[in-house]
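A common beginner's mistake is to predict each chain separately and then try to dock the pieces by hand. The better habit, illustrated here, is to supply every component at once so that their relative placement is modeled jointly.
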Amino acid sequence: MRLLEIKDLVKTYARPGGGEHRVLDVREFTLEAGAQQALRGESGTGKTTFLHLIAGILAPDSGSIRLDGRDVATLGEARRDRLRAEAIGYIFQTFNLLQGHTALENVELGMAFGRGVDRAHAESLLKRVGLGDKLGHFPRQLSTGQQQRVAVARALANRPKLVLADEPTGNLDRRHARESLELIREVCRESGAALLLVSHDERVLAAFEHMQDFAAMNQALSGSAT
Amino acid sequence: MIFNLIYRSLRQHALSTVVTAASIALAAGLLLTVWVVKTQSQSVFAATNSGFDAVLGARGSKLQLVLNAIFHLESSPGNIDAKDFEMIRRHPAVKAAIPIAVGDNFRGWRIAGTVEQLFNDIEYAPGKRYALAAGGRNFKIGEPEAVVGSYAAKQLGWTVGSTFRPYHGLAFNPDGEQHEEVYTVVGVLAPTNSPVDRVIWIPLEGVQTMSGHNPLAKTELSAVLIQLRAPTAGLMLNNQINASGGKLTFAYPIGSIVAELFNKISWVDKVLTLVAWLVASVAAGSVLVSIYNSMSARARDIAILRALGARRRTVFGAVVGEAAVIGLLGSVAGFAVFAGLAAFVASMIQAQTGVVLEPLQWNPVFWWGPVTFVGLAVLGGLVPALKAYRVPVAETIAPVS
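With all components supplied together, the output reads:
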C-alpha cells in the first residue's frame, strides 16, 4: 500500500538581494507503507528541505505530497502541524532534544501534540532503545549515542506511519553510527512505520535495499535558478 | 500539555523566574499595603470617636479640636471656661458631657485630666464599656492617682502601684519642667484599640491645679466630649454655637471632620498609589524583559516543539501562560510582603495614634490586586509570545541544505 506519493514538488526561496532561488523540483517520489528507503544527498542538494516539505514544516510552492491519503501541500499550517504530530516521526542530525527536559519528558513531547501523552509507552520505548535506567536523565547527562537513542524513541513516540531521518548518524562515530542505524531500522520495522532516511554517508546508504540519489531526483540542481 | 511546557520552562529558567516573581512580589506587596492602609485607615479613623458624637472647645479649627480631644494628638486650640461646660452639660439635647484638660506628659505620653464618669458610664464603642485589668480600680477625684491606657502602660512598663511625676507641656522635653506631684497608677485599662490606649488619665483637677500651671486657669478645660440624645441635636447645636460667632467651636459630626483630614492629605495617597502603580509597571516590564531576553536562547526549543507538532498558538499560549504564572507566583509572594509591610505600618499607626488597623481583614484589593498583576504580567508576556509565535521552524531547527 502506498503511504507517500509526491508529484511535481517545487520549492523556491527568496534571494536576499531580490528574485527567487528554486531549491527543489522533484517530479515524482513514492514510498510504500512500512518500507525503508534511503536518499543519497550531499550538503546543499535540498534534501532537508525535501523532508521539511513532507513533514509539513514548510509549504511547497506547487505540487502535491499525498501522505496516507491526504495532500499535505493543500493543508493549512495548523492541520499540517496536526498531521505531523500524529503521523510523522522526525530524527534530526543534531538530535534536537530539549535540554531542560529529561529523557522521558523528551519522548513524551513526541506524543504530546498528537493523541496525548502515554507515559507507559514512552517508558517502554526508552527501555527498547536501552535507556530504561536513564528515564530521569537530562540530555547533558547522556552520551552522544544515548542522546541519539532518546531522539529515536521520541520519533516513534506518536506511533507514526512515517519516520523521517535527516543524517541521523552524522554526529556519531562509526561504531555508534552502525548501531544507531540498526536500532532505527529495527524499531521502525517493529512499529510498522515507513522510514525515509537521507544521508551522504555511503556506509549508511549501503545498509539499505532501496536507495535513490537525491541529486538526480531534484531537477532544481540541474535547472536554472528562477 | 501547555501546563507541562510552562512548568518545565519555569524550571529551566528558575533563577530568572524567581527574580522576576520577586520583583512582582515587591510591587504587589507595596500596592496591597498602600491600598489597605489607605482604605482601612480612612474608615477606622472616621469611625473612631471614643463613643462621643461631638466635641466642644475653644474657637478654632474643628479638626484640631477633634485631633486633640479624640485622638490625643495636636495641641488644644485654646481653653474654655467652666461655665461653658456647665452650659453644654445642662443642655437638654446633651446626654453626657465629659470634660478633659491637657497640658502635661510623661516622657511624651499624654496626660489627660477627666472625670470618673468617663470610665464608669461611657460606652467607647456600641456595647463596650471601659474595663480595668485585674487588680486595678478607677482613680478618685482629688487624689494623685492615674488610670493608664493599655498601650501606654505596656510601653512604659507600668502596673498598678507604679508612680510617676508629670512633665509640663504636651511634648516631652527631658530638660523641661517636671511637676512636683507624684501620681500612682491605680488601674490599667483593658485594650480598646482606640487612642484612649495611649493616654495617662488623671483626675481633671489634677491637671488644672498641677504645680506650675497658671492658677487663674484652674477651672478651665481643654474640651468637652459630648454624647447627644439624638443626631438632629448635633445639627441644631452646630448651628447655635458655630454660627453665633462666639468663643466656642462645636465639632460635629466627628467622622466627617476626620474625613476632611483625609481629604486634605489625599495627595499623599495619590502619590503613594502612583508610586505603587509605577512599581507595578516596572514589574510588568521585568516580565517582558526577562522572557524576551531568553527568547533567542529559547528559539531553538520552540522550533523543536513546532517540529514535533506544536501549533503556533500552543507556543504562544505557553509563553503567555509562563508570564501569567510568574505574575501569579509574584502575587502570592506579594501577600507575604504585604503581611510584613502592613503589620509594620499598622504598628507604626498604633504607636502614633492608638488606632489599631487590621490589615488582614478582607479588602476587595485582595482579589483585584493579584488579578491586575497577573494581567500586567500577561501583557508583559505578549511581546515575547509574539516572538515565539513567529519563530521560523525550518531555519531555526537546522540549516537548510
